[in-house]
Amino acid sequence: MVGLIVRRLAQLVLLLLGISFLVFMSMHIAPGDPATIIGGPTASASDLEAIRADMGLDRPVLVQYFDYLGGILQGDFGYSYQTGQAVTDAILTRFPNSIKLAVASMVVAVIIGIVAGMIAAIKQNSWIDITSTTFSLAGVSIPNFWLGAMLILIFSVNLQWLPVGGLNSSIFTIQGIKELILPAVTLGTASAALIARMSRSSMLEVVRSDYIRTAKAKGVRQRSLIWVHALRNAMIPVITVIGINFGGLLGGTIITEQVFAINGVGRLMIDAIAARDFPVVQGTVLLVAGIFVVVNLIVDLVYAFIDPRITYN
């Protein structure tokens, strides 16, 4: 297990190096000039040259990259071209909203997905199974921006039950929970559909196993058979889907944050891309990539906890 963690951490470093290089180069190759955006339409050619020199944009791209990499190794991710704020501070200010949204969405997805998938498997070919499969297909197909707009129209505009957007209140207050419901449902619906489909197929495979038939022949009650013997083994592939989806949810918050006007990392990334704010874009992408890899490492560790037969020697 220790060897697995060391290997994965080494892979994490190499992966982040590769991602940092690709993002850095793609931002510098893409059309547009940060100096022009910062200087504005009235800036003269000499002003633009001064801005480029001040930000180091007049040096070769590879030199800029290695300077940036050296700063990262010292914990310095640079400063925003727009605001002059440290990238680390800008991300840490917005990150709590994104992580709250991602965790809440994952909770919604796991609860709905596992429960719907298990019930559909137990009641195979019944109206419950057909309904669950239909909603799973719809959940995967519906885009977040449309679903979010519809939820706002129904529950915020027409019924006036929930706020339109935000995440300005603490999640430990009633108002904070209300602000989180619509974005969490919007972001978690597609993941819930995937988890439900995986839970159903995994449970159907497990309940047809020999050890389940043996337990049933010995007179084990149906409830114990499903929730004690079958569920644990059925959860192994489901955990894979949950881990991958949680990493993806942090990237998926971009659209949801735009729809619900949430000041999170995703919205920060969109604004930085539009303004050609290289350091902020690079910092946010590295954050999302790093969390994605760490979540997958945690998933591998959870495998061993659920099924002791799994080893990583």
UniProtKB/TrEMBL annotation:
| InterPro entries cross-referenced by the UniProt entry | BPD_transp_1_N (IPR045621), MetI-like (IPR000515), MetI-like_sf (IPR035906)
Any idea which UniProt keywords this protein has? Cell membrane, Membrane, Transmembrane, Transmembrane helix, Transport
Q: Which residues form the ABC transmembrane type-1 domain?
A: 95-303
Q: Quick check: keyword Transport in the entry? A: yes
Per the UniProt record, one Pfam family is BPD_transp_1
UniProt-listed CDD domains: TM_PBP2
According to its record, how does it sit in the membrane? Multi-pass membrane protein
Where primarily located?
A: membrane
Q: Which domain of life is it from?
A: Bacteria
Subcellular location(s) per record: Cell membrane
Q: Which residues cross the membrane?
A: 12-30, 101-122, 134-157, 177-196, 234-255, 285-306
Coiled-coil spans are none
Q: Which family does it belong to?
A: Belongs to the binding-protein-dependent transport system permease family.
- Please give the name of this protein: ABC transporter permease
Q: Which organism is it from?
A: Virgibacillus kekensis
